[in-house]
Design brief:
By secondary structure, the chain is of the alpha+beta class. It has helices spanning 2-33, 37-58, 67-82, 92-110, 113-132, 144-164, 172-182, 188-207, 209-229, 247-255, 284-298, and strands spanning 235-242, 262-267, 274-283, 302-307.
Length: 320
């Protein structure tokens, strides 16, 4: 009986140790990246979608993605074709990672440490996925335009998901985030499109106008999908109607979202009773956070929202 009790005690102690270690690892991970598991898996899923779009639709069509990866692909093509060197694997992912190293340093100096850690992890995972996802010898669809559009949409959705978690795929995304933080009219997608134009001009000169045009079509669709999925980039006007004083709601908007809000008293046209209307402008991501907390703030509140509005004047972006 004593041996049985000792075994039970030992098992309890081991479970407690495992729980303590797991808890320490989880806390350190959250502090290092300022990420929860949901955002990590959303980022990973976004990377998988992006890499599937590139490896299954764009690379087999001999097109170029633009950005740092596009430059890496041009260098790879120069090594394999121009210099007539045959390599068993697609080395563009390795070149892409090496080019990103100075940009890692730049992001560490200009942006937060947690953003640097997230971007380093994301770019590493992205490089691995690009290397291990098999590239078919022939495009999945016979029509080159179809491959271009599908590849562009998948890539844009994937990058948009990554950006919405507060990370980036490195390269031009880093520059786009830094510039868009300082100017509300600049978006990450538009910076990417501008840089891609330079890459595609080089592509057109070396590999022909047709490849250049299809690569540009890919880039345009990718840009549209990035800006539609990058929720921190979409501005939303929100009206909140409450019967109670909106003190708690405004406090949450001010302190948790770091935004301003205006409220006034009104008379309900249907009930003829006093009500409060709170108006605020948020990013779509911030508005979604507000929605999740409304039950705690005022479960009877009524919200009216409008996405994609134009904001002029001072409206700071919080992209990371």
């Amino acid at each position: 009986m004593d041996d049985k009790n000792k075994e039970i005690t030992r098992n309890k102690t081991n479970r407690k140790k495992r729980y303590t270690i797991e808890r320490i690892v989880r806390i350190k991970t959250i502090k290092l990246f300022k990420w929860g598991w949901f955002k990590f898996f959303k980022c990973l899923l976004g990377l998988i979608i992006f890499c599937l779009g590139v490896n299954l639709f764009i690379v087999p069509s001999n097109l170029y993605t633009g950005g740092i990866l596009g430059i890496a692909q041009l260098i790879r093509t120069s090594i394999t074709s121009v210099l007539n060197i045959k390599i068993g694997i697609d080395i563009s992912s390795i070149i892409y990672y090496l080019i990103n190293i100075p940009l890692f340093i730049y992001s560490y100096k200009k942006l937060s440490k947690s953003f640097f850690n997230r971007t380093l992890l994301t770019v590493t995972l992205n490089s691995i996925l690009l290397a291990i996802i098999p590239i078919p010898n022939e495009p999945l669809m016979k029509d080159e335009l179809s491959n271009t559009l599908v590849g562009g949409m998948l890539s844009g959705v994937g990058i948009g998901m990554v950006l919405s978690t507060g990370s980036s795929t490195g390269g031009i995304d880093i520059i786009g985030i830094i510039l868009s933080k300082g100017n509300s009219k600049i978006t990450v997608g538009s910076i990417g499109l501008l840089f891609n134009t330079i890459v595609y001009v080089i592509c057109g000169v070396i590999y022909g106008i047709e490849k250049m045009l299809y690569s540009i079509i890919y880039s345009v669709f990718e840009t549209i999908m990035i800006d539609r999925n990058h929720t921190q980039n979409i501005k939303s006007q929100t009206f909140i109607f409450t019967k109670k004083n909106p003190e708690k709601i405004i406090r949450y908007i001010n302190h948790d979202l770091n935004r301003g809000a205006t409220y006034w008293k009104a008379i309900g046209g249907y009930t003829n009773s006093e009500t409060y209307i709170t108006c605020t402008v948020l990013s779509k991501y911030e508005r979604m956070r507000l929605e999740r907390h409304m039950k705690d703030l005022d479960e009877d509140a009524f919200m009216a929202e409008s996405d994609g509005i134009t904001v002029k004047g001072e409206f700071k972006k919080y992209l990371i």
